[in-house]
Write a structure and sequence with these properties.
242 residues, single chain, 4 strands, 9 helices, Glutathione-S-Trfase_C-like, Glutathione S-transferase, Glutathione_S-Trfase, Thioredoxin-like_sf, alpha+beta
Length: 242
């Protein structure tokens, strides 16, 4: 009986541990095919920050539900809720996670110049690379538009910039893995999955392979979402050609 009592007590302790861990986890509202959502997944994996995954079906309009609008009036994903604190925009979330949970992490260096370089790369991804991809590719998939050579040219120009940024270096913003790499790899993997060739950009290809091998839990955090993105493309392309 004594042994049985110890066993029950042990189970209770484990149950309490997992309940407490669940309470500590951050709520993430996301869709896996989204590159910005995968940025947050990559950062959380790199920091070993637990997440409660809440799928949001954008095509079904779940982002417009009143309960979600209370969390994020812009009704965008990714959105996190950390102990009652709501935040959206993937790069802002990434910085927040490092600032709060990444003490001593080199993902977002404290040196002003090193941090500024990471910020520049993040802003380049947010303001140039990803928008140019979206402007070129999404009208074809969601609107049935024909490929626009001028928009493809602007995307290729952005890829040329990135090819220069990663020339001669292991990573996008210095000698080590940073938030810049996690953000950019989500975008570049999406561009690659969409069938835009990267072969003209050897520095990007080298960097891309390096990051995939370096990022913690890359396949779980990004690879699975890329497969879902490919499935979405496959399902939507026939409709756009009707």
């Amino acid at each position: 009986m004594r042994h049985a009592g110890k066993t029950v007590g042990t189970h209770l302790k484990f149950d309490q541990f997992y309940l407490e861990a669940a309470k500590m986890a951050i709520d993430l509202y996301y869709t896996p095919g989204s590159a910005p959502c995968r940025i947050v997944l990559l950062v959380a994996a790199a920091l070993n920050v637990p997440l409660n995954h809440n799928l949001v079906d954008l095509r079904a309009g779940e982002q417009l539900r009143p309960d979600f609008l209370k969390l994020n009036p812009q009704h965008t994903v990714p959105t996190i809720v950390d102990d009652g604190f709501s935040l959206w925009e993937s790069r802002a979330i990434s910085r927040y996670l490092v600032n709060k949970y990444g003490a001593g992490s080199t993902l977002y260096p404290e040196d002003p110049k090193a941090r500024a370089l990471v910020d520049q790369r993040l802003d380049f991804d947010l303001g140039t690379l990803y928008p140019r991809f979206a402007q070129y590719f999404y009208p074809q998939i969601f609107g049935g538009a024909l490929a626009d050579d001028a928009l493809l040219g602007k995307l290729n120009e952005a890829l040329e910039f990135l090819n220069t940024f990663v020339e001669g270096g292991e990573f996008a913003a210095g000698p080590g893995l940073t938030l810049a790499d996690l953000s950019l790899v989500a975008t570049v993997s999406t561009i690659d999955a969409a069938g835009v060739s990267l072969q003209e950009y050897p520095n990007i290809v080298r960097w891309f392979e390096k990051v995939k091998l370096t990022v913690p839990n890359y396949e779980e955090a990004n690879g699975k979402g890329i497969q879902q993105f490919k499935t979405m493309i496959k399902n939507l392309v026939p409709k756009s050609e009707l």
